[in-house]
Design brief:
Layout lengths: L5 H21 L6 H8 L3 H7 L3 H23 L4 H14 L1 H9 L4 H18 L12 H20 L7 H15 L1
Length: 181
Amino acid sequence: MEKIDRRIIKSQNAIQSAFIEMLIEDGFDEITVKNITEKANIGRKTFYLHYLDKYNLLDKIVDDHLDQLKEICYKKQNKEFIEGTIIWFEYFKENKPFFAALFRSNSTLSFQKKLLTFIMGEIEKKLNTNTSINKNIDKHIILKFLGTAVMGILESYVLDEIDSDVEYVAMQVGELMKRNI
């Protein structure tokens, strides 16, 4: 296994931490590479050694979160649907300020597309198109319908539009999904 230089990790962590902090406080549109480098206490050259621009940085952070969600889904694959949904929603609760900032910004559509694709992929693993409830309905339409529903609830939860405990919301979503898959 190749050993990564600690300075690289330290620089990337500083850049990502500064970016996330500014994303939460100011919103994506207000962030500049200059702001990131000042807050992270690094030079612009160091930033560009790791990332092309703020969009590339955002994509990397989103991909890291989706990788963590994939790991969670892999670990929960043997759990009941509702129990697995609770674990999944807990992840969003733990990272609520970050996800709320992404949902608030019109400039982060790539995040929403990646999240929807991820959600649809997870639903597809459980989807049974042979049941009477789903017979004769196009699989892609079912996935898009259920995926956007889950994403809408996640968005409402992280933006505090749903004033309920995360476990309650997750159980409700899990029950709805169980009934429709």
